[in-house]
Amino acid sequence: MARSALTTTAAAFTATATLLLTACGGGGDDSSPDDIKGADKGANSSTPSASAAGASDVQRPEITIPNSFQLTFESWTSGDPDEQAVLTDGKEQLRAGYAAIIANDPDSEALAFYDTESGLSQDRKWVQSYTDKNLTVIGKLPVSDPEATLFAKKTKAQLRYCTDESEARTKNRKTGKVEANPPGTDPKVAYTVTMQKNAQGVWQAVSTSSKRGGCS
Prior knowledge:
Blueprint: H1 12-23, H2 41-44, E1 69-73, H3 81-102, H4 109-113, H5 117-131, E2 135-151, E3 156-164, E4 168-172, E5 178-179, E6 188-197, E7 203-212
Parallel strand pairs: 1-2
Antiparallel strand pairs: 2-3, 2-4, 3-6, 4-5, 6-7
Helix pairs in contact: 1-5, 3-5
Keywords: Signal
Organism: Streptomyces viridiviolaceus
Protein name: Lipoprotein
């Protein structure tokens, strides 16, 4: 349930919350492609960055996720360095979203770092869909089958991947009540994240769409 399958509502993160939200009575299952992840703020955000010389010179925020929520990335590698850069930042963007939910922090600087301005607005709504209901996420959420496609002279990209919410859950911070997806819900959710590279070389999420049951 980590990256809920509720329909992508708030960006790549929303996509994640999709499931959790759905389990908690959230909305639908689809979302419009280009609907969620944002990543512009990353350029001006949190940690000081070295120069625009290269992404490796940028000081990225440290993101910590407790053992109570195991967000794992399977085969998250590519032999192409440009594609790997997209995979790496896309992974951190997703981690930042879940970390914000767990920390009850919609204004997370890490999330802002990996989101564009428009994406950040959507992602904050996604995070708040949990925090406003006193919910956090627990369990396991494998993220697999990543595929990065670059275009526009390698300044824009589309990142696709799948999540399996079979062992993901939401937990009420006050009551301790734990909920999973409703019976009969397909646990596999396919995500498509539109990303762009900022002046510092960091790939940021612009929008995200999800489709429950869309994984091959």
